[in-house]
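Exam revision sheet. Question 4 asks you to relate a sequence to its structure. Input first:
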Amino acid sequence: MARDKYAGCVLHDQPAEVFATTEEAWLWFVRCQSARDEGARFGAGRGEVARPCEPDDIAREVGRLYRGRILRPAHLKVLDRFGRRLAPPDPWAGDSPAEARLWEEALDRLATPLKRKGIVS
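Answer key, structure tokens:
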């Protein structure tokens, strides 16, 4: 049975601004999740910039990639570590080349489904 194409949902009256990069989308998700953990409540149309998705859409995609063994636990670890820092790996901050490679791999693997869904340009 064929699956329906992802159509997204209307969150604002204004046109949605897609993310320029997967890294930008991931860091936005982490900021949203941190705010949620601190008690913030989200609602459609309240943000300054209209986005083509909810933060949970990105979380679901990461979970799907992990369950499909496309992302490994090491990928999730670096996504979490540098996401919480809100910055990519930096050799001047003592981050290893291996961590930088895992970061790039994770974002690369996440890019395709996010682009397909119109979340990232």
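Marking note for examiners. DSSP finds four helices and no strands in the chain.
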